[in-house]
Structure formats: structure tokens, C-alpha cells
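Re: folding output
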Amino acid sequence: MKIRKLSIVLFLLAVLFQIVLLLSIAYYKEASIRSGRKIIVTAIPFDPRSIFRGDYINLTYEFSRIDLKKVARSKDDFYRGELVFVKLLAVNNNWVATEISDTPISASGNNEIIIRGVVNEPNIRNVINVVYGIENYFVPEGKGKAIEKEISAHRATVELSIDKRGDASVCKIFIDNREVAFR
């Protein structure tokens, strides 16, 4: 009888641990979004469809493609999968990459922010592609095509929240300065 009770207790502890783990991940992401600095960036979207994941908008950003000849850098060569820190500078209502490093860097003013990413395509003609984890934005089933039509004819911008560690999250999408409502 004692072994059975112990088994039940261990099972419940395992289930409780998994629930706490899932909730802590969600809490961390929500806290990151709430406490992060909000910036508006220009996006270059298109709307793919995944049978398993549903409708989503794939977003790329001007600072996703970095010309190493035009930015300060910590070294000459970056490799696929390498963690990098990119300094963005606000220039004429747009955020552009001004520095890339494989070690943490800091922003020196209100018009700068650091975003953390991973090199996706290294040094092809001194240009690298960096992904930040903000490239896919899921939309309600059936909304992707309508958003794609609207975006193709207008200017799309995205509100990002970037926390102190440089982790970014998509908060809102705007088309011609109007927030896209997913209802």
C-alpha cells in the first residue's frame, strides 16, 4: 500500500512540475513583452501557409540582412548558428543595424537598442542574414490571405518589444499606420 501511495505522489509531482514549467515559460515571455522597450520597425511580409501550424505571416526586417562593410563588427567572419548582438540605431523613423558582435554590447543612448539574434546565413559577399525569433507571426485561421492582399499594396510596420537581454517579441502589426485587428 505504501508503494502505491508513493507512486501516486511521484506521479502528481511529475505532473505538477510540468505544469509549473509551462506556466513559467509563458510568464517569462509575458514579462519580457511587458517590460521590454517598444520600437516600431518596417517589415517586409509575405503570407505562407503551413498545414501543421496554420496561417502565419512571415516577416523580414531591414536589419535582418547586415552588410559587414557598413557596420562596426567584433570580427570578420560569423558562422551559421552563432549568437550575435546587433545594435540598432533610430534613423528617420527607421531602425538600422550599426554594429554586430559575438559578445554582448551596450546601447549608448535613447535612439539605440540591442537585439539578440542568430546568424542564419554567414558571409556571402560580406553580407550575413540574422534571425531574431520574430520572423513568424501567427494569425487566426483564414485571415492570412486577406492580410496578405492588404499588405502587398500598403506599408507594413511592426511594434517590437525588446527586453534588457535583447530578446524581441512581436506585439502588433500595422498596415499604413492602422493596427491589424484579428477578430
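--- second protein (sequence, then structure) ---
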Amino acid sequence: MAQPENYYYDVCLEDGSSQAGLVPCEYRKPQARQRRRFAEIKVGDALPVLEQGPVTRTHIVKYAGASYDFNPIHHDEVFAQRSLAGGIIAHGMMIMGYLGKSATDYLGTAQFDKFSSRNVAMTRPGDTLIIEGRIEDAQPRAGGGTVRIAMTAKNKANGTLLCVGEITATLQD
């Protein structure tokens, strides 16, 4: 049986909106990323704010499968409730991925030379994240330059800082 053109199949629907597992969606068309040039970057420039979420248990479990990190604190409610976390939490590297997505959306095809992050609070199912970034430094080099971007992820509901990060990337002129 052929699938409808504008649907994808998801066997794990949390919201129960479809018993058949078909979820309406717009197909992702290839997106030509515009490459940002070093000359366009200024220290103090803010990256566009990225709102990510709400984070669902399905997102967390899918990330567990992709990263092969099946720590029960990410999917087992009973185990997670008994832990110091007090409930299910998202993977820290998943949040780091959101920081990277924001920077990649802004920079285009730039190459990350360094990418680090530190989680300072837990992200839970239902949280919506606000991802922000700012150009902290720009060093010219022959044919382009290197930029350093400070990144943060905050809980939209209460402003709690969840993750901080830093990305260094090389851009061409």
C-alpha cells in the first residue's frame, strides 16, 4: 500500500493523533545554505533566536537510539524518579546538538574548529528551549577569519539557564 505523499510513518506517536501512525508533514526540501562570509561578521552580532521544543519523550528516546545511550534516566520513569534527577531528563548532548543547529543555521557551511558545551541544569520532557548566540571574537586571517560564538540554551517557561557553549569556526571571505 502506497503511503500518502505528504505523510511520514511514526510508530511511536505520543499524542495519539493517529492510530495508523501516519503524521502529516511538509517534505523537507533540500535547503541551500547560504555561506556567511567573514567580512559580514561583527563582534557583538547576535544569532537569530532559535526556539526548540517542546522536548518530548519521543525526541529523547529517538536521541537515545541514535547515540546508543540507553541510560534509564532518559526513558524509565520509575528509575528516573528514584534518581537524584527526580524524573526523566534529556541527554546533555542532545541539547548541545541544538546549540550546533543554531550556529549552523547562522553560519551556513562554515567548518567548526572547536565546539564545547556544559550543561548547568536538566532539560525535561515538556521544556521548550530558547537558543541564543553572540559573536564574541573575530580574528582575520588570509582569505577569511575565525569567529568565536558564545551560546546559551534557556528554559522558555522560567528563564533557567540549561546549557552554555562555545563554538569556534573558520569562515572564508
